[in-house]
Amino acid sequence: MSGCESCASRDKCSSKDKENCGSNSISLKIMPKYGNVKNIIGVISGKGGVGKSTVTGILAIQLAKKGYKVGVLDADITGPSMPRFFGINEQRAKMVPVDENNFKIQPVETKLGIKVISMNLLTQEEDQPVIWRGPVITGVLNQFYTDTMWGELDYLLIDMPPGTGDTALTVMQSFPIKELIIVSTPQDMVSMIVKKVVIMAQKIGANIRGLVENMAYIECEDCGKKMKVFSKKSSEEFAQYIGLPLLCELPINLDLTEALEEGKAEQYVMESPLYDQLFGALY
Ligand SMILES: Nc1ncnc2c1ncn2[C@@H]1O[C@H](COP(=O)(O)OP(=O)(O)OP(=O)(O)O)[C@@H](O)[C@H]1O
């Protein structure tokens, strides 16, 4: 499947558009109306629950710590988790009227000034489910990107929904994503499914930065020994199977879990030298 065959905009493109489209960009990309976003980074995994949102959150904090202006778009409409990560789940994004028929969205800002938009910042209660079909979800996602008051952003991180479904495909094709970061855990079954998303991204010509192996080990509190949890194979072996450079290995970190439960993950990650070491050189 070539870029054009899989492109949602293919029927709207002239042959000249198609010529100018290039292998890693699809024409008719949508743009934010209320701001300027310099770089979009998509964090994705074919599999649910491997730590995509956790990696998105850590990366956003690392970038903000370096002085960049950062936004996070939680594209997981039916299973949003970014508000909890940042401890902002009690706050609500605001719908600001522009005229009779249109509105813009004021995102919630974290303590570090990261602008976050998520479905869970718009529903009345955070445990209220969203029961929508694909096209509605896709429309809402596009609105999150175009109608949010992002202001000037150096980086917008997109926490992509799990899988290779309609939503992930739409985001990859209609948002001008600079590069993707793939998240996996060191397990055969997970790696096989994650490889599907990598192949999908490669088929549509997306740039992939590399692989983050999450929950790669747990460190003994007493002796500091790193113990593997899921498989005896190394993260490098899994990265080789998936066909990507290994960016870093994240340990299972119960202090992070505790900080998350207390709504203090942002402060914990900001103060933790571990994440400086792991992500410091990435951007
Ligand atoms: N390195 C880690 N150490 C400790 N807990 C972790 C780690 N990574 C993820 N978790 C925990 O595992 C759970 C799943 O993580 P997360 O929500 O980031 O996964 P996800 O891939 O975004 O899930 P989904 O597919 O539902 O969007 C969360 O409770 C998170 O706190």
Automatic annotation (TrEMBL):
Keywords: ATP-binding, Hydrolase, Iron, Iron-sulfur, Metal-binding, Nucleotide-binding. Signal peptide: none annotated. One of its GO terms (biological process) is iron-sulfur cluster assembly. The keyword Metal-binding applies. Gene3D superfamilies: P-loop containing nucleotide triphosphate hydrolases. Pfam families: ParA. Belongs to the Mrp/NBP35 ATP-binding proteins family. Binds and transfers iron-sulfur (Fe-S) clusters to target apoproteins. Can hydrolyze ATP. Homodimer. This is Iron-sulfur cluster carrier protein. It comes from Inconstantimicrobium porci.
